[in-house]
Amino acid sequence: QVQLKESGGGSVQAGGSLRLSCAASGDVGSRPCMGWFRQTPEKHREWVASINSGGTTRYADFVKGRFTVSLDNHGNTVNLQMNTIKPEDAGMYLCAAANDGLWRCLDGATVDYWGQGTQVTVSS
Predict the structure, then answer these.
(1) How far apart are CA 18 and CA 104, in angstroms?
(2) Beta-bridge partner residues of 1
């Protein structure tokens, strides 16, 4: 089992920055992927960004150039640096992980593990 714990959410003004982190514990697996999804009442759950243990990244078009996903702590922590935040970036950000290739962390249906989420609120 893998446990994921997010931190770093909060309130931010539009145009500002925020850094989310997610610490993984337990049996992370030999070649994990980790990533971020976000959930809102209007758009439900959507994929944001993912990274594999080799450092290959993928981003949803709506965050390209603004968000950066990275790994720390020997690959056990995934970060999401959010810059130039827009009001539509508000939502519950969920950390995700899977014990397989990067493709498993691009779709919520193929993710193995979820965190509880951290809320991001954006004021304009």
Answers:
(1) 26
(2) none
